Amino acid sequence: MTAFFALATSLLWGLADFGGGLLTRRTPALTVVVASQTIAAVVLGAIVVATGGWSAAGPQLWFAAAAGLVGPVALLSFYKALALGPMGVVSPLGSLGVAVPITVGLVLGERPGLMQFAGIAIAVVGVVLAGGPQLRGAPVQRQAILLTLLAALGFGTVFALIAEASSTITGLFLALFVQRVTNVAAGGAALYVSVKRGNPALPEGGFPWGSLPALAFVGLADVAANGTYSIAAQHGPVTVAAVLASLYPVVTALAARGLLSERLRGIQAAGAGLALVGTVLLATG
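Structure tokens predicted for EamA domain-containing protein:
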């Protein structure tokens, strides 16, 4: 069950990242984040009301609120690092956030078997290579490296926090709602500051109403991914769930290959293959 839900997480996150990347080509990244997360918050709010999720409120919701604060910071740091580039260095480094939940799992007493340790190592290397790391070329700005490491730490922290945010399905809906409301508040504040500094909040043609279905998909896929990851972490070792869920860069690369006809570099294809081998070892170990 852990492997199934964790792999579902990587699929959903990978597709959400792919969709978000396409949207940010036409609309400012902050606007994409706030709009997509607002749609997700509205849908989750309706689900919480329909299921009576308020009854599951408790201290664990602080974990969800913390994840909601950390998530936008990590995402914005990542976007800024991508802007500074080169992307061939930034993108693979961002996936190293998986070290955070792995460390948390080990501290809490999880002890994967030898086969699973091998799977973790192979899968992490595969994920990094699938991002197409740039091994030569232009030097990397120190600020880009620092921002990328901050983003990776943030992504990994969200992994760890969301795993502790609920213990029931009803509570999970409420936790995801709280996380999304916090996301919107934090992202909205950042967008307000950005606009005050003279940056546009919308493209030249105004709000992209035609992109509303895509924004909804990105927001809801991200929510679903958080939910499936929480379930995966609750039903199995966090160390395994985190690594399998972190395969989303492979999904994003394959989506770009299939839908945009982008060619995978040799190092990316090798990384995808290694990630698959690591997945098999983790799932069978």
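The two ends are 13 Å apart (CA to CA).
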